[in-house]
Design goal:
mainly alpha; 434 Repressor (Amino-terminal Domain); 3-stranded antiparallel β-sheet; 9 helices; 3 strands
């Protein structure tokens, strides 16, 4: 679970203040540490992310770095190691534009804030919603988590009604 003492990115939207975890950058050692703390093999961890074992291996060797949606997922897993095994059991879903919109609307977020919450660009969200592209493995896993648990701790925190 996310610690309650920040730091967070604060976004004001109408009368609500949203606190987002800042986007982390993960090097080889950090990726491997999260995987090992989750007590998962490379194959299991790659499956959770919807990526190949070779991609995960490249992250852990420092040959490549996780994208922003993968980093956001690593943030969540880094705060609750036991959570990884639970979500790894769930099949990775494919999302079309309507399904992405449904998840976003369930959260009650405009596209810009939704994109920030899951760690992708607003343009990527727009592209998904208009069926010009589809979310990759890590983004699909985040969408699945949000669909099941809209108040997912560690990804998005909402503070009550504050005046702007």
């Amino acid at each position: 679970m996310i610690p309650s003492n920040g730091p967070y990115i604060q976004i004001l939207n109408k009368k609500t203040v949203y606190y987002f975890l800042p986007m982390s950058r993960y090097g080889a050692g950090e990726v491997k540490a999260v995987r090992q703390n989750c007590r998962m093999t490379q194959r299991e961890f790659a499956g959770l992310f919807g990526i190949s074992s070779k991609t995960l291996e490249a992250w852990e060797q420092g040959l490549n770095t996780p994208g922003s949606a993968a980093a956001r997922l690593l943030d969540i897993l880094g705060y609750d190691y036991g959570f990884a095994r639970e979500i790894a059991k769930q099949p990775l879903k494919e999302y079309d534009g309507e399904a992405v919109k449904t998840v976003r609307k369930k959260l009650g977020l405009p596209r810009k804030l939704f994109a920030l919450a899951i760690g992708v660009s607003e343009r990527a969200c727009e592209s998904w919603e208009q069926n010009r592209s589809v979310p990759n493995g890590p983004a699909s896993r985040l969408l699945c988590l949000l669909e099941q648990e809209p108040d997912m701790p560690g990804l998005l925190m909402e503070e009550g009604n504050e005046a702007i």
